[in-house]
Amino acid sequence: MANPFETTDTEETVTCLCITVYHPEQEQKQVFRALKFCQHQQLRADELVKFGRDTNFCLFNFVDGRVSRIQFALHFFKHFNNTEFGFEIKNLSKKVKLIVDNVELAYLNKVDLPEICLVRFGDYEMLMQKQGGQSENYFEIRFELAKTPLWQDQREPLQQPIPESGIFYSDSPLEVDEDE
After folding, report:
1. In this entry, which stretches build a coiled coil (predicted)?
2. Contact 93, 71 (CB under 8 A)
């Protein structure tokens, strides 16, 4: 007699794109009020997922007149000669550039999303993290809300390398303890 555990189908895991969103005026303007937070939203694998302010064309909406009607789209795909799934992001705004990590996308430009990346446009910041799965039929998107900015300006001054001698020369005076 077969064990029921052995004969049950193995449940496929579903690829999930976790998107943490931030806007500096989210508390006052409620720009993310149309998004469902902390819920896995299952979508068909062949669906082109659009983000923007137009509720007639976009599945995920930002309630902000400064966002394009259709800002960008995500497309789920399977890598050629590979079992791994991924996402590509395409800028659909003629007015606003989309920045994926440090790559600037103009209108109709697209790029594959890395496993973890920061997507920015205008004052919007979105940390996108892919969690792998095997399902060819569906994927999921889950939104989280960040209370603090996700991106910090990287224009901090570079630190001077310390020479092999271990002595660091500087133009500014250094305070030295008399006992040294």
Report:
1. none
2. yes
Return the CATH class of domain 13-145. Answer: mainly beta
Mean pLDDT of the chain: 84
Confidence grade of residue 172 (pLDDT, cut at 50, 70, 90): very low
Task: Report the C-alpha gap between 153 and 20 in whole angstroms.
Answer: 18
In this predicted structure, what is the pLDDT of residue 2?
55
CA dist 108 → 39, 73, 94, 98 (Å) = 30, 10, 8, 10
Which two three-digit tokens encode residue 129?
């993290």
Q: Name the strands in the sheet holding 60-61, side by side, starting at the edge strand that comes first in the sequence.
A: 60-61, 48-52, 72-78, 85-91, 110-112
Residue type, 24: P
* pTM for the structure as a whole: 0.77
Measured distance CA(127)–CA(56) in Å, rounded: 25
